[in-house]
Design brief:
The protein is α/β, with parallel strands linked by helices and 201 residues long. The chain is built from eight helices and eight strands. The two termini are 16 Å apart.
Length: 201
């Protein structure tokens, strides 16, 4: 805090980002911040919501992007965006012609999924639990480009934030019959120290 009296000439922002948002929503924000504060260092940690929460609580991150649900009392959140979770299939898949898809029809297909701890996987697990469905997970990976290639080549289908399909070719987005919207927020520790750099971000 004393060092910061010199102004925003030095400092670091440690930000936790899930891969979907890191790939499609945040690059322009990060570049805009860097151009405004060229001397500040941005450290981006890619992780799932659960890991980001833990790292925030442990002081390993200053700020984190999380799903704004069941947030611990020791974190403060500020809403960023609402984004729809949609089924994603290859353009050549027969399902691509459908306007909507039911959860039961979705889970009849082989799936490619993020590993547990990512909000995308939490959503899938919650739906399965609620509707007593069993997912057929053929592939499990945290590598988003691999997930997209598997879906494009019609080896499996998945569920992703709609923003992904708006930027990627060869994919079709199908909303669920019961629409699913995620509240995405930026979070920090309630009693933690937010540096001038963090507050600027």
């Amino acid at each position: 805090a004393m060092a910061e009296l010199r102004g925003l000439e030095k400092g670091e922002v440690r930000l936790g980002l899930p891969s979907m948002l890191g790939s499609y929503f945040f690059p322009e924000i990060l570049m805009g911040f860097k151009s405004q504060y060229p001397n500040l260092k941005l450290t981006i940690v890619e992780a799932g919501t659960q890991s980001i929460r833990k790292m925030l609580l442990n002081g390993e991150l200053d700020l984190g992007i999380i799903h704004n649900a069941d947030v611990p009392d020791s974190l403060v959140t500020e809403h960023l965006i609402n984004s729809q979770m949609v089924a994603v299939v290859g353009e050549g898949n027969p399902l691509a012609q459908q306007k909507t898809i039911s959860f039961s029809d979705f889970f009849k297909n082989e799936l490619v999924m993020f590993k547990q701890g990512y909000f995308h996987r939490e959503f899938i697990d919650d739906v399965c639990h609620h509707h007593q469905l069993t997912p057929q997970i053929a592939f499990e990976t945290n590598l988003l480009p691999m997930i997209l290639q598997i879906v494009r080549n019609d080896f499996a289908i998945t569920a992703l934030l709609e923003m992904v399909t708006q930027h990627e070719q060869g994919l079709s987005a199908i909303p669920f019959k019961q629409p699913v919207y995620l509240d995405i927020a930026i979070a920090w520790r309630k009693n933690g120290y937010l540096s001038v750099a963090d507050r600027a971000f």
